[in-house]
Records
---
Amino acid sequence: MANSFGISTVIAKPTKFCNASCTYCSAPPEVNGAPKWSLDDWKFYFDRLHPYMADQAMILWHGGEPMLMGADWYRKACAYGRSVKPGIVFSMQTNILAYETGRWKDVFAEEFGGSISTSFDPDEIHREFKGSASLYSKIFNKRLDAMLKDGFRPKVIGTYTEETIDLAMTMYDRSAALGDSAFDLRINYRYPAGRDSGRGEMLMPVTYGRKLIEIYDRWISETPSFVITPLDEMLKKVMGLEAMRCPWTRHCGGQFLGLEPNGDVYNCSEFADLGDEDYRFGNLREQTVPQLLMAKVAVATRRRRFDVPEDCKSCRHFAECEGGCMRDAVLYGKGLGGKFHYCQSWKMVFDRIKQSVVSGEADRAIEKYGLDPDNVRKRLGPFPAAA
Ligand code: SF4
Ligand code: SF4
């Protein structure tokens, strides 16, 4: 029987241990570290969670480095999850350094449906393996090649600063050179959490917006076989294809949950990375899900759906942006109902996307999603000039 509970995504961290050491790690082992979960730990947490999860909810394995749990652990953990809730899906965010075809290919394909995201920064300075950035790159590149050969198309996430943002285009070149075997990309701004706490803004919103537009223009003109997040998700929102997608949702409160290795629960792993007790809902070992969701801070996160800044409500992009991410508002000192720090970037990019839809420049990109560009234009209506 379908249930009416709404947790759609659980970001589960079975360990904070990691085989790499990145200077800017947002979720370092020293924060909320705990022994790796046993299978019984997972079963305990899952038994408490599942009655409140949507039937098709997603569990995103995260860490630390989640592959350190071993392939067999995931076989058993996913099998248990599905035995209780057959519709749930699994995904993993991993540095892939431990990937080996013989051990992992089947798990990635059968348990996670190939849904894997990983991280790589083309400056090749801040990610280290055994103290060496070049060794990290060497192993990562080898593992990525093996995964591509095995037929996976992982999403490769890079985090960029004012100094490195130009390198985002080199990742586009690298993926484009692979033709039909290209991997997906995600271009993120580096943010001051975890080991980078207190560093403030590292990429200016205007720089980020400009680079995203430069990449968007190339992407819609070449329409390669890969997608680039956040541009793909933003285009989907403009086309009316996606509704509840992080970070373009003000409804994540009560629908997402981040579960730390020690059982601590936050709205999402991004909130956990703040390392701020004020945003902790409680602990799943000691409390039930309804108790956690009734915590004062949990109630406050659910208020974001109404409590967005006034100028967001009248913004020309409110339907798509929804006021941005509240974790970012908190991170940059604006509080749970405050302004999203990268508002300016989103405004610039949504303006450009809508303009390209109206002008017809995005037609081929729209058709790739199986939609008729004329219908998308009609849906969008007359788009006012950027203010
Ligand atoms: S707070 Fe931000 S990062 Fe966390 S789930 Fe909501 S939109 Fe996503
Ligand atoms: S673009 Fe900026 S003003 Fe508009 S809804 Fe998003 S955060 Fe608010």
---
Amino acid sequence: MTAAPDASPVLRLRDVAKTYGAGEAAVAALTGASLDVHGGEMVAVMGTSGSGKSTLLAIAGGLLAPTSGEVEVAGRPLATLSTRRLAAVRREVIGFVFQDFNLLPSLTALENVALPLDLGGASTATARSEARRALATLGMRERARSFPDELSGGQRQRVAIARAIVGERRLLLADEPTGALDSVTGEHVLEALRERADEGAAVVLVTHDARHAAWADRIVYLGDGRIVDETRAARPESLLSGGVQ
Ligand SMILES: Nc1ncnc2c1ncn2[C@@H]1O[C@H](COP(=O)(O)OP(=O)(O)O)[C@@H](O)[C@H]1O
Ligand SMILES: [Mg+2]
């Protein structure tokens, strides 16, 4: 599952620009962002509020079309795909974690997590056992049979994250996924994302918290609608040994 050194990136963004609206009201959220993320790699995206982080992630996931520039996911240029093929790529290749969790209220936690696999054609038994494993990773094994309205905000968020990491999807996109969580649970989420990267997935994590970004291999900074800087991340262990908080 580990990518060969010369393997092409799972996510490739080239000169991506996005302008919302037109005329006087136009907002240039991105002006020329380029980023490659390979399998096995976790990249943190940082930047001030309004710098275009969520826009970048939505474009990377095929939820939003760029105004110009190119987006490739697992070697497929998204702009060339039919609506149906694009939906299939979103379902089978990409896992999303957004700030609003979008759980289906009529399904249990387990059924919500199993849904992407069910839709992708997995057998019910496989979908359920993978979903159980993902819930357990997030410390939610005991709540598998609960419905979303029986769970706290933080628990719902963990179910949403389990749903994003379930199966073998090659690209995980997480937009400030620890928002509503206490710091211990937040660590679980970062650990789960890190584990998927170590298993070979490409992971993009939007965060404003440097301690969270430290879980990544690289940190990129968005400014003026493009990526203006990049650093190698220090792993949490080194932050701790350096005496930071
Ligand atoms: N649907 C939208 N319509 C108009 N402007 C938007 C829309 N979404 C985002 N923007 C604007 O685009 C810029 C980037 O937003 P966003 O990608 O949400 O940034 P971030 O996630 O870094 O806070 C901001 O100026 C924001 O107000
Ligand atoms: Mg945002």
---
Amino acid sequence: MTGTDNQASGNRMTGAEIVLQALRDNGVEHIFGYPGGAVLPIYDEIFQQDDIQHILVRHEQGAGHAAEGYARSTGKVGVMLVTSGPGATNAVTPLQDALMDSIPLVCLSGQVPTTLIGSDAFQECDTVGITRPCTKHNWLVKDVNELAAVIHEAFRIAQSGRPGPVVVDIPKDIQFATGTYTPPEAHHVQKSYQPKIQGDLNKINQAIELMKNARRPVIYSGGGVVNSGPEACKLLRELVELTDFPITSTLMGLGAYPASGKNWLGMLGMHGSYEANMAMHDCDVMVCIGARFDDRITGRLNAFSPNSKKIHIDIDPSSINKNVRVDVGILGDVGNVLEDMVRLWRALPQKPAAERLGDWWGDVARWRARNSFAYKPSDDVIMPQYAIQRLYELTKHRDTYITTEVGQHQMWAAQFYGFEQPNRWMTSGGLGTMGYGLPAALGVQIAHPESLVIDIAGDASIQMCIQEMSAAIQHNAPIKIFILNNQYMGMVRQWQQLLHGNRLSNSYTEAMPDFVKLAEAYGAVGLRCEKPGDLDAAIQEMIDVNKPVIFDCRVANLANCFPMIPSGKAHNEMLLPDEATDEAVANAIDAKGRQLV
Ligand SMILES: Cc1cc2nc3c(=O)[nH]c(=O)nc-3n(C[C@H](O)[C@H](O)[C@H](O)COP(=O)(O)OP(=O)(O)OC[C@H]3O[C@@H](n4cnc5c(N)ncnc54)[C@H](O)[C@@H]3O)c2cc1C
Ligand SMILES: Cc1ncc(C[n+]2csc(CCOP(=O)(O)OP(=O)(O)O)c2C)c(N)n1
């Protein structure tokens, strides 16, 4: 009997049927999961219907990251399904990842029967206890008649306000029990969670006043603009056009304003551009839109943008004044607040004179001329930055989505791949989870089957969730894994070199697998490229193959990612490429005292 038949028979259903019907009624088309004893009734229901597609992954961490990629690239809620015990504990990393990056996820987990809870039953763990700190909210459902309402509420909480992950833990006897299904329309929302989305007009007027009189303004935008949706991104572009303020963005906000836009300064922060960080340091008015003053952005807090008035738009009250005290805090959804801001700016009786920003744009031009992403090109060896530049040139006119793993390659991707639109860039920013990119690419490809989906990876990170190649093959997801293979945990090696006296402790990837053979073992296509002159043709081959590909791009082993603001330093103390210590690179030794160059 399908869920629809069940509705006809007076809304009486088993718990497992309720789960499927609630997913359908919340618009779910895909779920990412892995079965086990405590979720078998739900899997049995999945078997008997075909309107929700289940994507079988190879590890629950993969299910979570795939659901994150799916969510970020579509603006919908990502759904994962795991069994009790190890299934639930394996889900912890993606839950925390989604919490830190504000990604809406609903995780359904099986639990041992209610009568066995607390008895150290087989595959029992305290899922709500373990996931409480890494979710926005979680529930253990003990009454089948509450199951539908809890799932509807889970979807509402995951996507409203500051988006985030939620867990619904469902004991096996509740999945078997029969109860009443209530549709979302009949569901009474919890009064205690009603995020404020409309900004206070007085505050917005105060912000306009500061912006109007600014002589050295900067817009610092973040992931919250992408969270708010395409309309918010349009309004951001409109605000920049109207005010002519320079704009930078965090790693999480890339694409909300186009990289080709004339006011674009590039990403800011630890590996951000010189012009973005100098503008943040020297500005007199900072307009922070949907960003959270992360430590990768602020550097040393007491030296952060010392002379500016700060405006902060955020939907989460706990985000405002958390790390940095601001002068005007506007609580609300970015889209709504920007709509008011644009309207009020347009209605100003006297527009501020454009010339007042002349000197400031002069400063920006000088900083830009510093060319802080410069690197030494080579004809013999592929420089990692060059590899990203070529990847960008050969894919920019296509319908492309990029995911990443974590490390230097992630930062080079952020620096050298120009994002023109939001929701095209999926990366693990807050938790920095190696292993994120491959399953996230799978999730993106499931949502966008016709698009080109590329995971820009490092040789170490890719080995953390490599098993999902098998899921990609099974589900005909032709994802491309573009590994910048430098034979090191490059980001760790860079820190060891610059901050730990060149002692490269355990950051060399010995016993590297042959990635081409590995791809073939999974039934995918393996490609390798070692020479700059061969790169374009090899990338083109990767694009043209309609199958999953692992591309082993052999790059310079010891290239460093600059600029870099060392931990605890201020924005104007950043290390630039030509100040990099070539000597230090030359003197690097590994744990066995071997010279590395
Ligand atoms: C190796 C590594 C290096 C890194 N280096 C850098 C770096 O150089 N530069 C950099 O920028 N980052 C860097 N990061 C990422 C960094 O750690 C943070 O993840 C990132 O800076 C946070 O971005 P964000 O402030 O935009 O916040 P997000 O985590 O995207 O948070 C969004 C903010 O917007 C709010 N919000 C959400 N939805 C809405 C809405 N609808 N309306 C209003 N507000 C909303 C949220 O409450 C939150 O405060 C690095 C990460 C790694 C792993
Ligand atoms: C799960 C996890 N463990 C450890 C780290 C710490 N870490 C950050 S970057 C990095 C090295 C990444 O190496 P690789 O994937 O080869 O990328 P590269 O920096 O060389 O581009 C490590 C170990 C992490 N971010 N995530």
